[in-house]
């Protein structure tokens, strides 16, 4: 299976990410024109990891975001449902005792209630077959008063930028992926999943529906990406 369709069958999506795992970080940098590093900095600041905290980084991929979260002394559990991604991450950060890699289904997390000070997911929620169930699970494993941060592709708010972005997704991204990726079809799926994803207000409504308080979001890069935040009721 090289490409998943938008029915998002877990086995298909997992196999697709397995297939691109060894070049995933490089492709992220290429396709985002380097903005992935800026988005990761913004996400880490929004999470605000502190020494001694336990943080769940869901859909962590190869652990690049987890390493950023652990830099201030937090212990990070890097969870992903792709065995290939987990294998690359474990190899890459074999010397890091502050990052623990775990294979996990976002809709049925293998963690106890109220285990984490914060939970976060970057560019992964839209790949979950039942994203609302994933939000409920993230709430369950978060301590009272703990925070959630979601970084996800979204809807540009400025008309001309939205048109340019859609053109990039439709024409430029497939060409670049075809040249630089070992599996161009996987990036066609990612393209389609971005287009099908809800807008910023709708995702914020999902967070409130799941039970989070003080829900807010801010746009990054003109709304190409949005950073959503919330707190579990104390």
UniProtKB/TrEMBL annotation:
GO MF entries: demethylmenaquinone methyltransferase activity
CDD domains assigned to the protein according to its UniProt record, in alphabetical order: AdoMet_MTases (cd02440)
Keywords: Menaquinone biosynthesis, Methyltransferase, S-adenosyl-L-methionine, Transferase
Reaction(s) catalysed (UniProt annotation): a 2-demethylmenaquinol + S-adenosyl-L-methionine = a menaquinol + S-adenosyl-L-homocysteine + H(+)
UniProt: S-adenosyl-L-methionine binding residues: 62, 80, 105-106, 122
BP GO annotations: menaquinone biosynthetic process; methylation
Enzyme Commission number: 2.1.1.163
Pathway(s) served: Quinol/quinone metabolism; menaquinone biosynthesis; menaquinol from 1,4-dihydroxy-2-naphthoate: step 2/2
Keyword Mitochondrion appears in the UniProt entry: no
Function: Methyltransferase required for the conversion of demethylmenaquinol (DMKH2) to menaquinol (MKH2).
Family: Belongs to the class I-like SAM-binding methyltransferase superfamily. MenG/UbiE family.
Protein name: Demethylmenaquinone methyltransferase
């Amino acid at each position: 299976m090289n490409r998943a369709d938008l029915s998002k069958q877990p086995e298909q999506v997992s196999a697709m990410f397995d297939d691109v795992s060894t070049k995933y970080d490089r492709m992220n940098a290429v396709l985002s024109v380097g903005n992935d590093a800026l988005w990761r900095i913004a996400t880490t600041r929004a999470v605000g990891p502190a020494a001694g905290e336990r943080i769940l980084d869901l859909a962590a991929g190869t652990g690049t975001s987890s390493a950023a979260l652990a830099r201030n002394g937090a212990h990070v559990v890097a969870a992903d449902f792709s065995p290939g991604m987990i294998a690359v991450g474990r190899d890459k950060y074999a010397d890091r005792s502050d990052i623990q890699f775990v294979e996990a289904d976002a809709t049925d997390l293998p963690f106890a209630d109220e285990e984490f000070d914060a939970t976060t997911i970057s560019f992964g929620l839209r790949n979950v077959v039942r994203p609302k169930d994933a939000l409920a699970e993230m709430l369950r494993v978060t301590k009272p008063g703990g925070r959630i941060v979601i970084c996800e592709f979204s809807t540009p708010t400025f008309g001309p930028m939205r048109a340019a972005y859609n053109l990039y997704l439709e024409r430029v991204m497939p060409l670049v992926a075809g040249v630089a990726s070992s599996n161009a079809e996987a990036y066609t799926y990612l393209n389609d999943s971005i287009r099908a994803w809800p807008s910023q207000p709708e995702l914020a409504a999902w967070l409130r529906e799941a039970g989070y308080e003080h829900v807010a979001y801010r746009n990054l890069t003109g709304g190409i990406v949005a950073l959503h935040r919330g707190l579990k009721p104390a």
